[in-house]
Known about the structure:
The protein is α/β, with parallel strands linked by helices. The chain has 11 helices and 15 strands. Helix content is 36%, strand content 21%. Strand 11 and strand 12 form a beta hairpin.
Amino acid sequence: MVLCFVPGVSNQEKSPLNLESLGVGGDVRVMAFDLDDTLAISKSQIDPEMAALLGRLLERLEVCIISGGRFEQFDNQVLKHLDVADELKVKLHLMPTCGTRYYRWQDGGWAQIYAEDFREEDKAEIADSLTDGARQLGLWQEQTWGPIIEDRGSQITFSALGQSAPPAEKYAWDPDGSKRAALREFVAKRLPQWEVRGGGSTSIDVTKKGVDKAYGMRKLMEALDLKMENIVFVGDRLDEGGNDYPVREMGIASVPVEGWPDTARYVASVLAATDTSAQRGLCRDTPPRRQAGRARRSHRRP
Ligand SMILES: [Mg+2]
């Protein structure tokens, strides 16, 4: 099969990329990534290989990172380890706490474009409910790695073992999700006015209703004047009930991954499909193995 990739890619800032060859189709302008277990191991620093691939991707596309985590986590996990020029940093769109905050590179620093926070009395009520629930269900740990309840402004997060718990401890705490489900149900019954959702491997997030990663994607579309077909989302929890699922449900092309090495392979395939031969407007044969991989990816796509 002969494919011609990406006509007009030399004017990448304005011309969308056509990634149909990767099973995502449409005119892609932004590649959006979940953070934990998609770009990096949960709460850990991004691998240099993944950081380098992100830098190369920024030369081709706008990139969004969206997570339930705070901006400081984006900074510690990703931004400090990205070795890219300022003119590429302006192509990075950071959406901590599911897009209730939005940061961009402006005048040599990361600038908050907006923030949608809870009122102080609401924060206190949510923290009390999470604490009561954890104590009554026997999930309150006395020995933790940092605070259990964290005020993220627009999101209150319960992390059973503390924010800085080692990933191995976190993964082992609730492998079947039953502890998080019980606490989620406890708090959701008492605070029906708020959205209560399972977050990472030990966490429960409370936000305003309707704030999830789909909300963040809508904010991004608004900010950049995009249509759904201009975005591809990459995430590790696109399964129903997962914290990436709302993006898939709203109809954005979604690529499921299992950890950052899987994401790195996908980004490498995007870079390969938009490489310099494409910039020269050349056609080339697609190796059969890539076609097979593409078909598989296509089928995995919801
Ligand atoms: Mg994740």
